[in-house]
Amino acid sequence: MRLALAERPHRIAPKFFYDAAGSALFDRICELPEYYPTRTELALLGRHAGEMAALIGPQADVVEFGAGSATKIRLLLSALDRPRRFVPIDISAEHLHAAARALQRDHPGLAVQPLAADFTKPFTLPAPAGPAGARRVGFFPGSSIGNFAHGEALTFLRQAAMLLRGGGLLVGVDLVKDPSVLHAAYNDAAGVTAAFNRNLLVRANHELGTDFDPAQFAHYAFYEPRLQRIEMHLVSRRAQTVRLAGEPFVLAEGETLHTENSHKFTVDGFRRLARQAGFEPGPVWCDERQHFSVHWLQA
Ligand code: AVI
Prior knowledge:
Blueprint: H1 2-6, E1 10-11, H2 20-30, H3 36-56, E2 61-65, H4 72-79, E3 85-90, H5 93-106, E4 111-112, E5 115-116, E6 136-140, H6 150-163, E7 168-174, H7 179-185, H8 192-208, E8 217-224, E9 229-236, E10 240-244, E11 247-251, E12 256-263, H9 267-276, E13 280-286, E14 292-298
Parallel strand pairs: 1-12, 2-3, 2-6, 3-4, 3-5, 6-7
Antiparallel strand pairs: 7-14, 8-9, 9-12, 10-11, 13-14
Helix pairs in contact: 2-8, 3-4
The site of N,N-dimethyl-L-histidine has 11 residues, from strand 12.
């Protein structure tokens, strides 16, 4: 945060959104009428889980990147043939362990081994409880891949291709579309996305002792067509001074903290990126409106 306040333009990595309050707000975003990605992807998973399960094969070792509430994996798990193990990875430990406990209750025969980690950094998978050597399959839903910069997405996919060698990755990818649909999805009428954005400041106040007044920052999200991405910012409503450990940082009126990018892809553009990372792109499932896609990538 010190660096974010000291450097210009001010940037904060979106992974810091996900403390317990931020994860709960994100769950509410997923239910909003304007936020189409979650329900579109859930419908795709529901409709095509059988085809996906056939590609994944029996007795898979499933790793989910950024599992959150682990809702989507339930659709896949119920279609899979005797999955051996499920390793949900998430940065928000509290949220992750609650979700893992609920999943374990509903799938008593499955080895659920949650891993609280930042999957953008190197990590080691827990040793399997049962026999080793199962086909490893990654699940990365929600178009979280879009929150990475291009180079970070490529690095993540390269590491995933190595981790999943011999198996594959099932990944949800949000598509380029009418900007008005995108704009509405990140500027919901109920203001939940605004609260999610401002929660970063609330979190910094609790955890780092900054003295942000969240009401003095406006939520600002817009589609940047040249870069095919939604940008999310917090705009300083007036000239103000924020303190971190006694050190003052001056923000001018209109100056922004850039809190998130959410890149959108074309189907072909994403397949090119996956190939560049070492995957062999396979089948792709899209909804009728071409809003969202789920890709099977062979590792
Ligand atoms: C988690 N991620 C894919 C969401 C997105 O759409 O980029 C985060 C989000 N930010 C605002 N609304 C949702």
